[in-house]
Every structure is written in structure tokens, then in C-alpha cells.
Amino acid sequence: MLSKILNNLLRPNYAIGYFLGNSFPNYFRNRYVTKTKKFGINKKYFIMSFDCDTDKDIEVVREVDSKLRKLGISATYAVPGELLKRGKDEYTSIKHLGSEFINHGYLSHTEFDEKNKNYVSTLFYDRLPREKVRDDVFNGHYNFIDIFGEEPIGFRTPHFGTFQKTSELNFLYSILKEKNYIYSSSTTPVSGMWHGAVINTESGILEIPVSGSYDFPARILDSWSYRFSPTRKLNEKDYFNQFTKMVSFMNDSSSSGILNIYADPSQVYDWQLFFDCMEIASSLENTSFQNLVKNYE
């Protein structure tokens, strides 16, 4: 009966999806696996990506990357163009080690308040005219080429939780298609709850939603929500608990999917509990977005 009720809902918006996911976690965990296997994924992957949105990230990104490499983990980095320029030496050195980079737009969109140890968001795609969104995506694209000498094939929207409407995502995918992008990781766990680990969009862009928490499938499992958000109700120990539960869920013999986790380097470089989680996640097959889509494109 529950399945029939939920399947009859017309493309729920984020608020409805958030409520349902956290109200019926077991149903949506099972739905996720079913949809993922239907797409053709019958393995268990781990993708670790970082949104490098502040100058503090430039300072600590090599340290974070080095710690992960010692655990056998190669990460993906999403860096706004303005910061990619300022941190060119740091980011190119990581890329030369084999790390994946994706377009994250051009303009900086976050400031770090050193005094209050708080992150302040400054730019949102849903508040911009569509032409400005297009400009930011394309300017980030061209800057990526200038820095790395190659075209990006993957994208992540700044503050992507605010750019989730069907019309917004369709617009995003249409402009990514113009530049021959293959994939995006710009949707919240709500998308994964309904559609699985990878979504083959009408535009042909493969969308890879970030992962949610085990007990709260709609809640992003990230460093901001569990460590820095001023409105958080869960804490760092909850992060470890939810992360280990997700790894156990993924490792179950009947499960398949992608543990698609993201964080900011500046939010985890001094957090040993995060690296403990990374060591636990090494039981899954570490991959990149690019390598994943090569197998399933």
C-alpha cells in the first residue's frame, strides 16, 4: 500500500520528498537499490568529492588530499573559477597526482567569517537571471581550460540544494549539453531516493545525486550539516554513526549503489573523525565520476 501511495505522487518537490524520505527511510533505501540495479549498477562504489569554496580550502587542500591518498582514496574537486585561479599551484599539483576536477562555476559564492568561524553563502543560481547562470557556467568552463589545458566534462552547481526545481535542472542540463558535458552531481539525496544512484536525464546528461544519511535518507551526509550549520540538530558523533551505517548498508550482499559523499576541505582538515570515516569507506570501491560514467554511459 505504501509503495502505491508514494508511486502515485507527481514528482514531489524538495519539501515533500524531504518529509517522506525521513518518515519512511527503509522504503526509500530499498527503492534506491532497486532503481540503481535497474540502471545497471550492481556494484558498490565510493566517491569522495570536495567543494573548495573559500581561500581557506586552498591553504589545506594538499594536506587533506595527502591524508586521503594514504588511505588509498583519490578524491574529486569542485572549485569556482576565481578560486581555481588563486589556488592554481595547489590545485594543479593535486590534479597531476591523478585527482579529478569538475566545473563549479566561475564566481566565488562563499565567504568564511574567521572571527565567528562561520561560512556565509553569497551567490545562488536560483536568484540569478538564467543568462547570468549561463555566463557563470561557461566562464567557469573556459577558466578550467585555461588552468588545466583540457575541457571539463562534469559539473556541480554552487549551493546546489537551492537549484533543484525541474525547470532549473532542465535549464542546467541544456547548457551543459552545449559544451558536451557528460555528467553532473548537482542534486540532493531526494533525487537519489526517487531515482537511484544515477539518473539518465532527458538531455542525456547523467546526474549523480549526493548521498543522504542512513536514518534520514533526505538529509545530506556532509560536513556542513553535521559540524557547522548554526541550525544543526545533529553533531559530529551523529555524522560518524550515520556514515558507518551507510557503509554497512552499501556492503550488504543485496545492496548496490554509490556512496557519493562531499565536504569542504576547510571543514574537515582538522577533524580526525572524518578521516576515520574515510578509512571505513575504503571497504568500498573508490572511483571518480569520470571513471564511473565511462562504464555506464
Please give the domain count: 1
Distance between the termini: 35 Å
Q: Classify the fold: give the CATH topology.
A: TIM Barrel
Overall shape: globular
Features:
297 residues, alpha/beta, TIM Barrel, 5-stranded parallel beta sheet, 4-stranded mixed beta sheet, 14% strand, disordered N terminus
Question: How does this structure look, described?
Answer:
This protein is an alpha/beta fold and 297 residues long. The protein has a single domain (2-296), classed as Glycoside hydrolase/deacetylase (TIM Barrel, Alpha-Beta Barrel). It is 49% helix and 14% strand. The protein has helices at 2-7, 14-23, 25-39, 55-70, 81-86, 88-96, 130-148, 166-178, 189-195, 223-228, 236-251, 265-268, 272-281, 289-296; strands at 44-51, 76-79, 100-103, 110-113, 118-121, 154-155, 183-184, 199-200, 206-207, 257-263, 285-286. The strands form 3 sheets. Strands 1, 2, 3, 10 and 11 form a 5-stranded parallel beta sheet that branches. Helix 4 (55-70) packs parallel to helix 6, helix 7 crosses helix 8 and helix 11 runs parallel beside helix 13. The longest helix is centred in the middle third of the chain and has 19 residues, at 130-148.
Structure summarized in a few sentences:
The chain is an alpha/beta fold and 297 residues long. It has one domain (2-296): TIM Barrel, CATH 3.20.20.370.
